[in-house]
Amino acid sequence: MPELFVEILSEEIPARMQRRAAGDFKKLVTDHLVEAGLTYEGAYASATPRRLILSVQGLPARSAEKREERKGPRVGAPEKALEGFLRASGLASIDAAEIVNDPKKGDFYVARTVVPGREAINVCGEAIVEAVRRFPWPVTMRWGAGSAEAGAMRWVRPMTSIVATFGAENEDPEIVPVAIGDVPVGDTTVGHRFHAPEPIRVRRLDDYAPALTRAKVIVDMDRRRDQILEAAKNAVFALGLELVDDPGLLEEVAGLVEWPVVLVGHFDEATLSLPEEVIRLTIRVNQKYFVTRDASTGQLSNAFVLAANIEASDGGAAIIAGNERVVRARLADARFFWEQDLKNSLEEHLATLGNVTFHDRLGSQLDRVDRIEALAQLIAPRVGADVSLAGRAARLAKADLATGMVGEFPELQGYMGRRYAAVQGEDDAIAAAIEGHYAPVGPSDAVPEGKVAIAVALADKLDQLMFLWAAGEKPTGSGDAFGLRRAALGIIRIILEHKLRLPLRDAAGEGLIRDAWGVHGGSELMESLRPQEPMDASPEERLARAQNFGEGGDQRAFLVDRFVVQQRDAGVPAEVVRAILPTLTSIDLVDITNRIAALTAFLASDDGTTLMAGYRRATNILRAEEKKDGAAVKGAVDAAALVEAEEKALAAAVSEAAGAVSAAVSGENYEAAMAALARLRAPVDAFFEAVHVNADDPALRANRLALLAALRDVTRQVADFSQISG
User: Fold this and answer.
1) Pairwise CA distance, residues 417 & 404, whole Å
2) Considering the domain 347-571 in this protein, what is its CATH number?
3) Count of CB atoms within 10 A of residue 255's CB?
4) CB 604: neighbour CB atoms within 10 A?
5) 339: number of CA atoms within 13 Å, CB side?
């Protein structure tokens, strides 16, 4: 069966865009083909620094004809309606339509037409043009003489040619009719820009890939990547070294070269006295080179690996020498920043942050440091950290933002602070906290270790969340410029992974959120952030708004919402978390996760499934009664008014369960609480088998409803089961 082959050659495709571009190109073209009635057996897409490549195999020569049916107006409809129907259906006259009878609506017109199949090569041409015009490049440009015209061709970089062929394996393929500006379209391409610039005729993918390999171009992205990795490992192994694993850099380098030639260079060993990450970033970020380690010691070595895009006649000696000069200069700059930074203490660097604005409503970075320091000292004893160490670490945590090294490499914030702290003799816990307090940055990053680091990390994230939110920087559906979702998730993960009993709110209304406000509760800053009251607000509304603001109610609710999302991502249905929340007097995340674990296990058991069925039956009866009367069913069960043995047994079981569940919940023994609920399974089943709740006797009926309400109240000590579907 025929194959469509396409190569779009341009001056450059940026490395970071290539893999996605290949996938986008394949999807755009194949979607168009399928919509036009052309199925296919398989598709392959790839990219190089200059080419976008697509092969679609197993296409038919023509699309199949389609039979279409369009229902029209009723017989006798106005002339305008008939004219519109004829235009939409493509019929020449109403006589060409069929009349169909509908027993309910009468006779109406139906247009039945046959859309003939089309030559696949023409559909392929349309698919290519449409894909090019709709291509989702993040950035595009115009070029050439027609670039100023309306609707001018846009592409990521100037397009130089297109190969587009269509034909069966045993046939000489035809050139697909494609018209995209003045870009030449045919069946010839070129190889490597320097090694093989001569024209190469292309038939299909099977001959294209080998021909390009002979012309010093490796078409497949994964093959280029794997070849670079293998060659680099082999090259450094011979020197007694190991390549430092860097998948992101490997992917990027594979997108920079069409014919990778791996070379090894060296820099001055004395430079290894710089912090390791400084060397790595200098070489990686600026030059896209890999660093190496000594295989025996694990220490960073002075050898680096680069992938050139040319086979040099001197074996790469000149390329290596040139890159060594650049690396030496880059590392000399890094050494300069390191030495200059060490001329001042972290306290001296910190002082300059008073001139750096953090937020126009929240003051300078130094003002923020003051808040974090006070909050870290407040949190420290609650996580078992030394108060003075936590305060000192928080004081110095942002100092490296003022250093030359972090100014050059913002990615090194925290890392450099730890190194400078170690040089000036700070306690190890302080140095570790300076680096660790930013963690976790992403959902898969490790949380900070060490009690001092935990205290400072929580203080940093709480300050970020509480005060930026109050300053009006709340996250929206489309953005979160200040990373408040990330800060909230960081707080949640630190609490959960270290099992910290730090309630966001306890039974008395105190908690971690109030702590953050309390540090500066009476300050001018707090007053400046207080939202304006509506002119028509009642005194009660004003009091509620003031309390909610002063207690951080909005931020606490946001944290709880983020917790629900975090649990959902961990595999816990949101409805299970929502079922727990209404039962709480304290918002303690560790306690909530313990409740969730017990509830999840209970719901998965036979006892849980059966009791849930009985619970739903009970609540449906209660809901109907409460809807009818407009009030909740209340009142104590009158034991003397119970008639049937089954209702007496249920009343006794509910009374016993109420005490057992209450005691278990108070002791945070949620497995025992679930076990107490499980013992209700049999009496609930027996009750609904034998007892008619809506008895004719109003007193008997009211007593039985009160019994069901008591059953509901017992379960609500553990969870609001009405939140759980199924």
Assistant:
1) 12
2) 1.10.3210
3) 21
4) 9
5) 8
Nearest to 288 by CA among 325, 261, 328, 248: 248
Cα 142 to Cα 293: distance, rounded to the nearest angstrom: 45
Question: What's the pLDDT score for residue 544?
Answer: 64
- Same fold yes or no, 347-571 and 595-723: no
Q: How many CB atoms lie within 10 A of CB 326?
A: 14
64-84: buried (b, 16+ CB within 10 Å) or exposed (e) per residue? eeeeeeeebbeeeeeeeebee
Helical (H) or strand (E) element with 57: strand 51-57
What residue type is assigned to position 92 of the chain?
A: A
Q: Which secondary structure element, helix H or strand E, spans residue 485, and what is its range?
A: helix 484-497
Domain boundary assignment for the chain: 3-62+119-214, 88-114, 221-341, 347-571, 595-723
Tell me which residue of 456, 445, 539 sits closest to 497, measured CA to CA.
Answer: 445
Distance between the two ends of the chain, CA-based, in angstroms? 50
pLDDT tens digits for range 223-242: 999 999 999 999 999 999 99
Which residues, in sequence order, are bridge partners of residue 165? 5, 175
Amino acid code (one letter) for 145: A
For residue 303, give both structure tokens. 């050898």
pTM of the entire structure?
Answer: 0.76
Per-residue pLDDT for 183 more than 90? yes
The contacts found for 409-415 with CB under 8 angstroms, 24 or more apart, are 409/278, 409/281, 409/282, 409/285, 411/281, 411/285, 412/277, 412/278, 412/281, 413/438, 414/438, 415/275, 415/277
Q: Cβ distance 49 to 16 under 8 Å?
A: no
What pLDDT is recorded for position 545?
64
| DSSP three-state, residue 459 | helix
Tokens of 643: 């008639």
Dist CA 124 CA 106 (whole Å): 44
In angstroms, the CA 567 to CA 493 distance is 10
Q: Are 683 and 708 in contact (CB under 8 A)?
A: no
Instruction: Sort residue 112 into left (φ over 0), alpha (ψ -120 to 50) or beta.
Output: beta
CA distances from 711 to 408, 634, 650 (A): 65, 12, 9
Contact between residue 241 and residue 296 where contact means Cβ atoms under 8 Å apart: no
In this structure, what token pair is assigned to residue 253? 């380098």
pLDDT higher than 80, residue 542: no
Among 44-48, 215-219, 563-567, the range scoring the smallest mean pLDDT is: 563-567
Q: Which fold has domain 3-62+119-214?
A: Alpha-Beta Plaits (3.30.70)
Strands of 106-115's sheet, edge to edge?
66-74, 106-115, 98-102
User: What secondary structure letter does DSSP report for 169?
Assistant: T
- Burial profile 665-697: b = 16 or more Cβ within 10 angstroms, e = fewer: beeeebebbbbbbbebbbbbbbbbeebebebee
Q: Is the domain covering 595-723 a CATH 2.60.40 domain?
A: no
Task: Assess whether pLDDT exceeds 90 at residue 15.
Answer: yes
From 130, 2, 128, 127, select the one nearest 56 (Cα to Cα): 2
- CA separation for the pair 706, 724 (Å, rounded): 23
pLDDT, tens digit, 9 for 90 and up, residues 468-524: 998 889 998 778 999 999 999 999 999 999 999 999 888 877 888 887 777 765 567
Q: How confident is the model at residue 221 (pLDDT cuts 50, 70, 90)?
A: very high
